[in-house]
Specification:
The complex is a heterodimer of chains A (551) and B (425). Helix content of chain A is 80%, strand content 1%. Chain A starts with a helix and ends with a helix. Chain A has 551 residues and is mostly helical. The chains are: A mainly alpha (551), B mainly beta (425). Chain B: It comes from Helopsaltes ochotensis (Middendorff's grasshopper-warbler).
Chain lengths: 551, 425
């Protein structure tokens, strides 16, 4: 745009004065990079027209054409004149030039737009950066102030700390001083006390002398007669021999006391060693069944063989002789080792369980949580049992200190025998009871079978009886004839039923129901229970007889 | 045996029937039975005379006159045939023999609380001495009163000595200004010395356990430290705080029961006994809920021998319990379980504890507080026993019978015997 401006101004100075306001407009445009640019780049049609008319009028057509041609050639466009040197215009070239000029114009416009966009962007970026900068400056200020405040506080605290240290030192010094005073006073008091005591001793000595002088006359002991010594012996003279004997006795007393104590300690030691060995055995027995991995199994195998040797060795020797340092250390070390192994094993199990919970693992390698818990419960139970066993063993040991080994074995045997006998007795009782139950059950089953049979028979009889009844009801003239033969089977039935009733003792004869019930039975022909029905039979029979007679 | 003014009355222990009556020359201050219960000595300090009476032969008499030497203390020797008299100002201890009428002297005895100690089997006697401002201990054989050992102790001012029940170790402790407990073997060797702290007031009381396994040291800092007989090192410290918070401790509190008055009885003229029972307050034990805070007395700071610290210690006969009294908390008896080394029971009474003593056979503790009730505790529980009778019977002290079936309750000028029934099994 600038180029355009500079060129147009001098050339068209003579032609168009009207252009000046337009060019002045144009001049303004670069300074204000706003839409005015766009506006000026696309001048309004009004300006356009005036501008166009200003440049080329009818008078200066040729001049303007030649000017345009010059401009175009300088810009690199082909000339608009025709090839020949005449003043004929090459229309095609003109149009082409116009087209190219338009394209150039578009391009320039686009570039301008882009530049303007970038300009805007940069402007906003700059604003943003300025804001950030301002904020950061504020923050910096704040933190600087804070730092200053904290420094101030730190200073105050340090000074307080120093004061307190100083106070503490003062107090300590005072305490030290007081202690020194106390000790010096104590020594002074001791010294004074000693002095006074010496004086007192001197007085006592004096008094003693006076008393001793005086007492010869007065001091006396009147006894009616001499009393014998408590133990009946005579008094002995004081000689060297007696002194020696005194010493001897005293040492004897001391020695016996030490011996007793040593015995007690030996017993305790033996007990504790036994307990430790037992614990070792238990630990060993606990370790192998829980191993899952081959690695550990191989380790355990080695360790096991080691420990078995140990156990063998220790068990071979007599317990009472295990008093030397090395053996004692061996035992304790081996127990410590095994306890550590057990601990490691349990820790591994714990880790496995925790890992199994968090991630998926091979089933074979991992002990399931329930199993682990079961095992721990089992272990705890075992530990409890061991503790109880240890307690009871201690008690037993204390009780059986004086007993021989033989008597203890005998006692144990006696207890076992007693228990066995008791168990045998119980077995016998149990067997007898079983037999009785079998018998009863058999009898009950028989009774049930018989009952079933009876019921069947009764049903048959009842059916027959009903038939008879029906027959008797329909045939009046034959009623008496019918009843007599029917009575016999009925009576026979009764007898048989009554006979059959005896063995099953549990079936007790019931009370005969009311006559109305009987009549209901007859009329309804419903099936009542066998017992009342059977018992009812004679009554029914009687009733029916009566009924038949009434009928 | 009991003495009234200048008369000695001997009664039968089970029936309290008077068996003998003796008259002495002067007011009797101290009586003691001989170990075989055949003789009784009556000491009259003012006159400096000791009279000995025999139970088998009432006509037999013996009088020991110390003369101008004066008499401060008198006791039997374990064989029951010698009497040890301590003269005034602790000038000397005279050993009088009833068998041979001979006299022996022990010079420079120490004027302290427990200066003479006999072993339980009566073989040896330890006497604390002081010469030239240094403390010594002499061990004598009681058979023939020969000096066995004589050694010095590293104490500033020896306060007391006591034999262990097994007779092989002697404990000696220093004055309360210095905390030091020394343990000597029978032959005079120093086995060990124990010092818990330096400046504050030290040992107040000491007790051996009956099996000689433990030595309990009660000190002015309200703690009991227990040493074991193997290493003579402290195995535990038992503290006596004023507030009890542990839920496993049973606290028995004595509460006053309001006397129940029967409306029927009021109609009659009340007899004297009834009147006294109406006016005297009954009390019973109640189990108090933990946490309990006990009555605490702040000691006066500027007096000597302050009422602080563990002043009374006693092991039970079966070596299972230890009863202690902290003078700061004067109404409470603390009973510790020795097997667990923990506090098991606290008895809180209404008045200050005067005295307590274990039954020599069973783990039963009898406590008296100066009221007319005696309190018994055993692991099964505790009861309050009221002394029936007229007026006030303020029990100041008590003493068990050696069989554990009865005990004597002493007030200022009366005594009564309490019989305990044995449970029918």
């Amino acid at each position: 745009m600038g180029d355009w401006k500079t060129i147009t101004v001098p050339v068209l100075s003579s032609d168009s004065k009207n252009i000046f306001p337009h060019t002045s407009e144009r001049k303004r445009s670069p300074t204000s990079m706003n839409s005015q640019v766009l506006r000026s780049s696309l001048p309004s049609s009004k300006n356009m027209h005036s501008f166009f008319s200003a440049f080329c009028t009818e008078e200066n057509i040729e001049q303007s054409i030649s000017y345009i041609d010059r401009e175009l050639t300088t810009l690199g466009f082909p000339s608009i004149y025709a090839e020949s040197k005449g003043k004929e215009l090459n229309l095609i070239a003109i149009i082409n030039c116009m087209n190219e000029l338009l394209a150039l114009q578009h391009k320039n416009l686009r570039a301008q737009e882009e530049v303007e966009m970038q300009h805007l962007k940069l402007g906003s970026d700059m604003d943003h950066l300025q804001n950030c900068y301002a904020k950061l400056k504020e923050q910096l200020e704040l933190s600087k102030r804070e730092i200053v405040g904290l420094q101030e506080r730190d200073r105050q605290l340090q000074s307080k700390n120093r004061n307190l240290h100083q106070l503490l030192k003062n107090e300590k010094d005072e305490v030290q001083k007081l202690q020194n005073i106390i000790s010096s006073r104590a020594t002074q008091y001791n010294h004074d006390m000693k002095r006074k005591e010496r004086e007192y001793n001197k007085l006592k000595e004096r008094l003693h002398q006076l008393v001793m002088n005086k007492k010869d006359k007065k001091l006396a002991m009147e006894v009616l007669n001499y009393v014998g010594r408590a133990d009946g012996k005579r008094g002995a003279w004081r000689t060297d021999k007696t002194e020696a004997r005194n010493e001897e006795e005293m040492y004897k007393v001391l020695l016996s006391d030490y011996e007793q104590r040593q015995k007690q300690l030996l017993l305790e030691n033996a007990e504790l060693k036994k307990v430790l060995q037992q614990m070792k055995k238990d630990i060993i027995s606990l370790l192998p069944p829980q191993k899952q991995k081959l690695k550990e199994r191989s380790e355990d195998g080695l360790v096991l063989s080691d420990q078995e040797e140990d156990i063998g060795d220790l068990n071979k020797e007599n317990m009472w002789e295990l008093s030397c340092e090395t053996v004692r250390e061996q035992l304790t070390n081996s127990i410590r080792k095994q306890w550590r192994m057990l601990k490691n094993h349990v820790e591994k199990l714990d880790n496995q369980v925790s890992r199994g919970h968090s991630g998926a693992l091979n089933e074979k390698d991992v002990i399931s949580r329930e199993d682990h818990e079961l095992e721990t419960e089992k272990l705890e139970l075992e530990i409890q049992q061991c503790k109880e066993m240890i307690k009871t063993q201690q008690q037993l040991l204390q009780q059986q200190l004086t007993c021989d080994d033989d008597t203890t074995l005998l006692l144990q045997d006696c207890y076992l025998l007693e228990e066995r006998e008791r168990l045998q007795e119980e077995w016998r009782l149990f067997r007898e009871q079983k037999k009785n139950f079998e018998k009863e059950r058999k009898s009950f089953t028989e009774a049930a079978i018989r009952l079933g049979l009876e019921r069947k028979a009764f049903e048959e009889d009842r059916g027959a009886w009903l038939k008879h009844q029906f027959l008797s009801m329909t045939a009046d003239c034959k009623s008496e004839n019918v009843t007599t033969p029917s009575s016999d089977p009925d009576i026979r039935l009764m007898k048989s039923t009554s006979r059959q009733r005896k063995p099953p003792s549990m079936l007790s004869p019931t009370v005969s129901p009311e006559p109305c019930q009987i009549s209901q039975y007859i009329t309804q022909n419903s099936v009542a229970s066998e017992k009342p029905a059977a018992d009812n039979m004679p009554n029914l029979w009687v009733e029916s007889d009566d009924k038949e007679e009434t009928e | 045996a009991s003495c009234i003014q200048h008369r000695l009355v001997v009664r039968d222990a089970s029936s309290l029937q008077i068996l003998q009556l003796y008259t002495c020359l002067d007011q009797i201050q101290y009586i003691e039975w001989s170990s075989d219960s055949l003789f009784i000595l009556c000491a009259m300090y003012k006159r400096g005379i000791v009279q000995v009476w025999s139970l088998e032969q009432p006509d037999w008499h013996c009088k020991i006159d110390e003369g101008s030497a004066g008499l401060v203390a008198s006791c039997w020797s374990p064989d029951g045939r010698h009497i040890l008299n301590t003269t005034e100002f602790h000038l000397r201890i005279t050993v009088w023999s009833l068998c041979t009428k001979s006299v022996s002297y022990i010079k420079y005895p120490k004027a302290c609380q427990q200066g003479v100690a006999f072993t339980k089997d009566g073989r040896y006697m330890a006497v604390a001495e002081r010469r030239d401002c240094k403390d010594f201990i002499s061990i004598f054989v009681c058979n023939n009163w020969q000096l066995l050992r004589h050694f010095d102790t590293e104490t500033q001012d020896l306060f007391g000595i006591e034999w262990a029940p097994n007779g092989c170790v002697l404990a000696a402790w220093d004055t309360c200004l210095e905390y030091k407990v020394l343990l000597y073997s029978l032959d005079g060797r120093l086995l060990s010395s124990y010092c818990a702290y330096e400046w504050p007031l030290g040992v107040k009381s000491i007790a051996w356990s009956p099996s000689s396994q433990f030595l309990a040291i009660g000190s002015f800092d309200e703690k009991v430290r227990i040493l074991n007989h193997v290493t003579w090192k402290k195995i535990t410290e038992l503290d006596h705080p004023a507030t009890i918070t542990n839920k496993k401790i049973i606290v028995y509190k004595e509460v006053e029961k309001s006397p129940t008055v029967d409306s029927e009885r009021l109609s009659f003229l009340p007899t004297r006994a009834l009147a006294s029972s109406l006016f005297s307050t009954q009390s019973k034990y109640e189990v108090a809920q933990v946490p309990v805070s006990l009555q605490y007395i702040k000691p006066v700071a500027d007096r000597a021998n302050p009422k602080v610290g563990v002043g009374m210690l006693a092991f039970s006969a079966d070596n299972c319990f230890l009863a202690t009294k902290n003078d700061n908390i004067p109404n409470a008896v603390w009973i510790w379980d020795i097997r667990k080394l923990k506090l098991s029971v606290v008895l809180e009474q209404l008045c200050t504890i005067q005295y307590f003593q274990w039954d020599p056979c069973q783990p039963r503790l009898a406590v008296c507080t100066g009221s007319s009730r005696v309190y018994l505790w055993s692991p099964a529980g505790c009861i309050v026993v009221q002394v029936p009778g007229e007026g006030d019977f303020q029990i100041m002290s008590l003493s068990w019978h050696s069989s554990g079936n009865s005990m004597v309750l002493l007030s200022k000028d009366h005594f009564c015997v309490c019989y305990l029934e044995r449970e029918e099994v």
